[in-house]
């Protein structure tokens, strides 16, 4: 009988480009901070519009900023991929709704 030769294949990991990795992570961090900041701003503006009786305007404003967020990132020179953009939109929507509710409470208006 012939012996079977067993070859161990080693998994070769690709080289890590540290500069590209750091730039990508910096862009992700900037995009999260900017989207959360826009969420805070839009939340208080939406609360103001609801306070003066324009509820549909406040909802449309919040949703419009959610659709404009990728264009704001490209205007600011921040490159984000689709996965990171989904996280940014989720953080924006949570911040928008949170600060909309906070803005409707008595200390603000």
What's the story with the biggest beta sheet? none
What percentage of residues falls in helices of 4 or more residues? over 70%
SS class? mainly alpha
The SSE order reads HHH
Q: Report the portion of residues in β strands.
A: under 5%
**Overall pLDDT confidence:** 87
Per DSSP E runs of 2 or more residues, the count of β-strands stands at 0
**What is the number of helices?**
3
Shape descriptor reads elongated
- Gyration radius, in Å: 23 Å
Low-confidence stretches: none
Distance between the first and last residues' Cα: 89 Å
Report on the architecture of this protein.
The protein is an all-alpha fold and 109 residues long. Helices cover 72% and strands 0% of the residues. It has 3 helices and no strands. It is elongated and about 80 Å long.
Itemize the secondary structure elements and their pairings:
Elements: H1 18-51, H2 55-76, H3 82-103
Helix pairs in contact: 1-2, 1-3, 2-3
Concise summary:
The chain has 109 residues and is an all-alpha fold. The chain has helices at residues 18-51, 55-76, 82-103. α2 runs antiparallel to α3.
Keyphrases for this structure?
109 residues; single chain; mainly alpha; elongated
């Amino acid at each position: 009988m012939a012996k079977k030769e067993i070859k161990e294949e080693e998994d070769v990991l690709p080289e890590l480009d540290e500069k590209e990795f750091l730039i990508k992570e910096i862009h992700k961090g900037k995009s999260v901070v900017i989207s959360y900041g826009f969420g805070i701003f839009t939340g208080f503006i939406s609360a103001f519009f609801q306070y003066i009786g324009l509820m549909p305007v406040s909802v449309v404003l919040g949703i419009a900023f959610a659709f404009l967020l990728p264009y704001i990132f490209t205007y600011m020179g921040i490159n984000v991929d689709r996965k990171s953009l989904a996280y940014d939109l989720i953080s924006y929507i949570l911040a928008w709704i949170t600060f909309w509710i906070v803005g409707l409470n008595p200390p603000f208006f």
